[in-house]
Structures are given as structure tokens and as C-alpha cells.
Design a protein that fits this description.
248 residues, alpha+beta, Ribosomal Protein L9, domain 1, Ribosomal Protein L9, domain 2, 3-stranded antiparallel beta sheet, 9 strands, 59% helix, elongated
Length: 248
């Protein structure tokens, strides 16, 4: 279903854009909230006017919240929570909790839906985006530490966990490489065996060829010998006849 956006909608589009969305999303959320209308030919003709109105409104809001965005960018917020020895929280730090501390800090109401984060369930440092407008999305730093412990200890735990994970990954990669090498050895051996067989076959063919040539040579020599033997009696007969003529 195609709709014409009446307001800026994060990750979808800006006012005046025509977008294709799921029918359920359009009917159950966009249209009831006054964020979009069905993109009929008549509605699309109004897109230019809606776009200009959206630009004016957007510029005004960006100007009003520009200072807030700069104030929030890179700012650290700290939460203490109960956690297991594996750094997993008993519970979580959710968008509602983050929105409350951010609103208190900047003096501007931030809704949970403006917090771009899944519930945080681990001790350590997390980067979270705060969607003030479609253009202003500062990133803040959330530090979650164990109740009764310091922020530094939480960061050290996270660093150690990251190193252990990196070492474990390295071991896995080494094991996979070793397995690959083992699997590659038989292939090399098979290739060598195939080469040897080919060489043996070539030698056998050469030997057969040599034997055939030798047989041919022997046959030729035998024929020559037989010819010579046949010539000798003829010569003897000629000599006998010559002697008989002389005697007469």
C-alpha cells in the first residue's frame, strides 16, 4: 500500500514523501495517528505543499533542539543494578528508565520511543541513540555497574570479558585451521599417488614400446639371416657347375 507522509517518520521518510508500507502498518498506526494518508492521485498533487510545510516545521524544531542535541552528544549516564558473576543483570535497564534520566538532565521531555536501544542486560558500557528529530540523533553513553561497586570495576570487568572472548575466538579459529590442514593432507597424498600411477603407466607404455621395437628388430635380423642362408647354396651350386665345365 502506498501512502503520503504528512509528518517526518524516523527510518521511513519525510513529510511529502510517498512510501510503500504494509497495509496493517498504514491502517493501524500511520493513518489513525494522522501521520499519513492514502496516496490517491488527488492526495499526491498536494505532496509539494506538504513537503514545504514539513521543511519549515523541521527547520524550526531542529533549531529549538540543536542545543539539546549538542548537550547530549557523548554524555554519560550511570545506572547501578544487581548482577550475577557472569555480568548479567537481574532484570534490565530499559528505554523508559533511560528516557527518564535523560529528560531530567536536559529539562526536555524525551519519550521512551525516542530511545534507540534494546533493554540493556549486561554490566559495562553501552552506546545509545536518542532520536530528538529525524535529523538530530545524538549518541549517549550508558554505564551499568554492580550495586556497591565502582564504575571503574564495571569497565574493567567488561574489558576482561572482551579479552577472554577474543582469546576464545582465536582458539576456535586455530582449531578450525588445524582441522582444515588435516583434511588437506589426504588430498595431497592422493594427488601424489595419482602422479605416481601416471608415471608408472607412462613407464609401462614406454617399456612395451621398447619391447615391440626390439621384437621388430629381431624379426628383421632373422629374415636377413634366412636370406643369407638361402643365397649360400645358390653360390655353391654355381661354383660346382663352373668346375664341371672346366673339366669337360
Amino acid at each position: 500500500m502506498k501512502v503520503l507522509l504528512l509528518e517526518d517518520i524516523y527510518k521511513l521518510g519525510r513529510a511529502g514523501d510517498v512510501k510503500k508500507v504494509a497495509p496493517g502498518y498504514a491502517r493501524n498506526y500511520l493513518m489513525p495517528q494522522g501521520l499519513a494518508i492514502l496516496a490517491t492521485p488527488g492526495a499526491v498533487k498536494q505532496a509539494g505543499r506538504i513537503t514545504k510545510q514539513g521543511e519549515v516545521k523541521r527547520a524550526k524544531v531542529n533549531q529549538e533542539l540543536g542545543g539539546v542535541s549538542e548537550q547530549l552528544e557523548g554524555k554519560r549516564f550511570v545506572f547501578a543494578a544487581k548482577a550475577s558473576e557472569t555480568r548479567r543483570l537481574y532484570g534490565s535497564i530499559n528505554a523508559q528508565m533511560i528516557a527518564e534520566v535523560v529528560s531530567e538532565e536536559i529539562g526536555v521531555t524525551v519519550e521512551p520511543k525516542q530511545i534507540e536501544s534494546q533493554p540493556l542486560r549486561m554490566i559495562g558500557k553501552h552506546t545509545v541513540s536518542v532520536r530528538l528529530t529525524i535529523d538530530l540523533i545524538p549518541e549517549i553513553e550508558i554505564i551499568v555497574h554492580r550495586e556497591g561497586e565502582s564504575i571503574e570495576s564495571a569497565l574493567e570487568e567488561e574489558e576482561k570479558a572482551a579479552l577472554l572472548a577474543e582469546e576464545a575466538l582465536g582458539e576456535i579459529l586455530e582449531e578450525e585451521a588445524a582441522v582444515d590442514d588435516e583434511n588437506a593432507i589426504p588430498e595431497v597424498e592422493q594427488t601424489d599417488e595419482a602422479d605416481i600411477l601416471e608415471e608408472d603407466e607412462a613407464e609401462a607404455e614406454t617399456a612395451q614400446t621398447d619391447e615391440a621395437e626390439i621384437s621388430e628388430e629381431d624379426e628383421a635380423e632373422e629374415e636377413l639371416a634366412q636370406t643369407d642362408e638361402a643365397d649360400i647354396p645358390e653360390e655353391d651350386e654355381a661354383e660346382v657347375e663352373a668346375e664341371e665345365e672346366e673339366t669337360e
